[in-house]
Amino acid sequence: MHRTPSAVALAAALATALPAAAAGLDGSEVTITGYCCLLPSEPFRFTVPASATVGAGIEFPAGSLSALGGYDLINSDVDVSAFTIDLVYRESGEAAGGGFNGFGFDFAGLAGQRIAGVALNPASSFATDEVGLSFDADSVFYDGSGLGFEPGTRVSIDVALAPVPEPAPALSLAAGLALLGAWRRRTAFTRS
């Protein structure tokens, strides 16, 4: 007599094929770079890149970033936590307008995770449509073109992370789904 696996056993096997979520951005290495006034790319860089390990305390306190030739930097504390990038401005100023004027945050060591989304936190001093946010798998970009800042102005960015499937678990998942499909077809034929 041939036994077919139960749907519960197949579901359990599939669940173990997916990696567990890690602890957010904590422990990763973050590099912050300022860009003005067109794109967040090397020709438009206006700060010296600075790096820190995400953890307790403020990763980039006001005054710790260095502006390049002729650019003014509006000082802010930049704190990165498990799921948030928080900028609190410490002086008055206005960001120049343009295609992009803000910061790129590049993360290394995300421990099997990738950035899956960003959103402006309601605790921010600006409305969602006033701040430009974008991301890729290991970077977050904040565009504050044309915004005015006062001491205490806050831009808080929520960062969503998702696990990156590893090749072996992904193959196990595909094999499990194929087995489940074959089992379902077989049981459909035996009931007919």
UniProtKB/TrEMBL annotation:
Determine the domain of life of the protein's source: Bacteria
Going by the UniProt record, its keywords in alphabetical order are: Signal
Residues in the signal sequence: 1-22
Q: What is this protein called?
A: Putative secreted protein with PEP-CTERM sorting signal
Query: Which source organism does the UniProt entry give?
Result: Rubrivivax gelatinosus (Rhodocyclus gelatinosus)
Taxonomic lineage per UniProt? Bacteria, Pseudomonadati, Pseudomonadota, Betaproteobacteria, Burkholderiales
